Amino acid sequence: MHSSTPKKILAVVCSFLLSLLTFLLLVAICTKMTFFDKGFYLSNIAKTHYYEKVTSDLMEDFTSLGIPGGIPDEVFKNTISQDDVQTEIMACIDTSFSGKTYQIRSNAVKQKLYSAFLDYAKQQHKREATDQEQQALQELASECEKVYIQNVRFPFIQQISGAKALYDRFFIPAAIILGVLCVLLGVAIWFTQRWRHRAIRLYVYAGVGCSLTGILFPLYMLIWAPYKQLNIQPPALHGLLTSMASQYLISLLVVFVVVGLLCTVLAPIYRKLKNKVL
Amino acid sequence: MKKLVALIAAAATCAAISLTAFAAPGISASEQKILDSLQGSVTTQAGASISIPQEYLNQAKNYLMRSDVDISEADATTTIGHIEEAKTAVKNSNATSLSDLPGSVKSIVLEKATAAAAVNGLSLTFDASSSAITIKDANGVTVFESGDIIKTTGADYTVEIALGAGLVLIAVAGSVYLVNKSKKAAVNG
Amino acid sequence: MAKKHKRLMGFIVIPLIFAFLSYILLFTVLSPMMKPVFSIFQLMSSEKGADFYSLPESIYSPSSISEGTVSLSQIEFPVYGAHYASIQLPGTDEAEDLYFGDSNAVLKKGIGQYMGSFLPGYGSPILLSGHNNTYFHNLKNVKEGDVITITTSYGVYEYKVTGTAIKTRTDKTAYDLNQQKEQLILYTCYPFNALGLTSQRYFVYADKISGPEIVD
After folding, report:
1. Rounded to whole angstroms, how far apart are CA atoms C196 and A248?
2. Would the pTM of this model clear 0.95, i.e. be above it?
3. ipTM confidence
4. How far is it, in rounded angstroms, from Cα C53 to Cα C182?
């Protein structure tokens, strides 16, 4: 007895839905393991020498402030180290991913700079700074503090941590729902097909379809890399964002290539079942 | 849509510096009419006065002076019509500042800025460390910058600046579009 | 054989159709949310990346024309960060480089012009800034009646100092960029030679007395 046309169409639709839902599930899992994982940020930061570049930018900005403030570059040299910057940024990411707001320890930096300024002023004028001078130096230290915060604060970290909290809230229920739907569709395909090899064929359609859906877009993005043309400064941040985008796309590509390859495992099973029927 | 963007942009770009009919070098009579229509502020339903900051318009004007811009009388009339539509939309809102404009109006600005920018190779640049916004042309040269006039130590990013940047972007981009359009017309005509 | 070939094509064509339909569906559903994101992305993208740090080449070639008119079409308009003129304060032996734009990079190299002000000869205000311990260290000595000279590639301009003022940086009465006369406004940090930063700036105002007028 042959399957009727509506039954065939329904089977193909189920296969398509299985393909789409599997794609969505895998993208959700991949995103959770990258953009919403602290390790992803820390590994990319290390890979792009982000700490070193931020420290360099910070010193550049400090010395730019030093010019109108009458403070030479040497005064700033020993105030901030790369280790300090690294500790601060890591703590910022760590705390934010725990769902809390991180308070940058800028006051300590400000006090350190202010002391350095006072020492320099004393060295220059051979006397203690006057009240007016102290006020002006405090103002300079405050501006340096603002610059420190702007450079060290991980950009958009509050937004990322907010998005992560939201994502975490819905990820498990969504993953369960998608998973259950996929299983149901798989079961529906299996039991509506008279011949098992046809069910396998529909699974292969779904798997390869999912794989192609997940490969085409990341491949396009990796080849043309439009995200590299984004005008975000400073260069350290641009490099970091580019690296993160590339790694995310590569992760997606790998996941979906694996899915595609797994489908090839089904091919001999399909042939075996088909031969049995014939 | 492109023409709408270009016309409004051209108008905004050539914004008058004065209330008089002083025609500065490089600005024709029809462009001056557009400038005059942009002069001044719009009072919203909330009683607030909104206008494009003069220093933003000056920057757009400086950019335009790199090449000749000729807007015909007909285009100027259409442009002024569009400007009045935009003014009406702002007037009918309850905004108290540029940043307060309703999402629908902001979306329109963004959409037009994007279309205009795409035509003319202009782009927005955001510096995360200083929170400064600049508009750059296709060669990466700064056309517009936000921030304090009397320099301090960094610009404070506000939505108002961003929206202002978007408006000037339309302005600058649209005027360049009109430059290209007028040049093509001259070549073909 | 043909049937086997047909089956094999089915394993490619149908998944491709699935992929295509998936993209259409996702685009339709996500489009309203993604539209502003795409707009911002498009707005912030350029083939040539933004460069905040290097300055363009100098376009300065000193002119000796000090009167008459100069056509706008004959002027090479400076781009942001370009060295386009020189400025000499009274009582100084050397002129300092004048740049269009006033970023940190520019102020490290010379005097910067705010790009919301206009070129010499245009008949509109010119706002210049410089550090008081480098290129504007002589600004404090400029008095009323002194003459400041700006030499561009298209003309030589002289400005007579009309007054000075000490104002805070946020005081909008310190300058008027809307005025219809060519006023040269120079400012630097105040107090001079002070260590640290204050909110005060020292302003010098001068009116144009000679130089070719830019015409259309």
Report:
1. 46
2. no
3. 0.80
4. 31
d(CA A15, CA A188): 10
Q: How confident is the model at residue B69 (pLDDT cuts 50, 70, 90)?
A: very low
Write out pLDDT tens, residues A187-216: 999 888 887 888 888 999 999 999 999 999
The answer to whether the CB atoms of A150 and B154 lie below 8 A apart is: yes
Phi-psi region at B20: left, alpha or beta (left = phi > 0; alpha = psi -120 to 50): beta
Give the residue carrying structure tokens 């070129």: C119
For residue A155, the chain B residues in CB contact (below 8 A) are: 128
C190 contact B CB<8A: no
CA distances from C150 to C62, C90, C104 (A): 10, 11, 22
Q: Which of B105, B108, B142 is the mutation pick for testing C, counting most C CBs within 10 A?
A: B142
Please name the residue of chain A whose CA is at the shortest distance from the CA of residue B124: A231
Query: How close, in Å, is residue A259 to chain C by CA atoms?
Result: 13
* Residues of B whose CB is below 8 A from A143: 152-154
What is the DSSP secondary structure assignment for residue A249, as one 8-state letter? H
Task: For B48-81, give the secondary structure using H, E and C.
Answer: CEECCCHHHHHHHHHHHCCCCCCCCHHHHHHHHH
Helix ranges, chain A (H): 5-33, 38-47, 50-69, 73-77, 82-97, 106-125, 131-152, 157-192, 196-224, 235-277
Cβ contacts below 8 Å, chain B against chain C, sum to 118
**pLDDT (tens digit, 9 = 90+) per residue, A136-173?**
999 999 999 988 998 888 878 888 888 888 898 899 99
Q: Is B130 on the interface with A (CB under 8 A)?
A: yes
C122 to B25: CB separation less than 8 angstroms, yes or no: yes
> How does strand B132-136 pair with strand B142-145?
antiparallel
Reduced to 3 states, what is the DSSP secondary structure of residue A49? coil
> Residue B144: is it exposed, middle or buried by C-beta count within 10 angstroms (0-12/13-18/19+)?
buried
B108 touches chain C (CB under 8 A): no
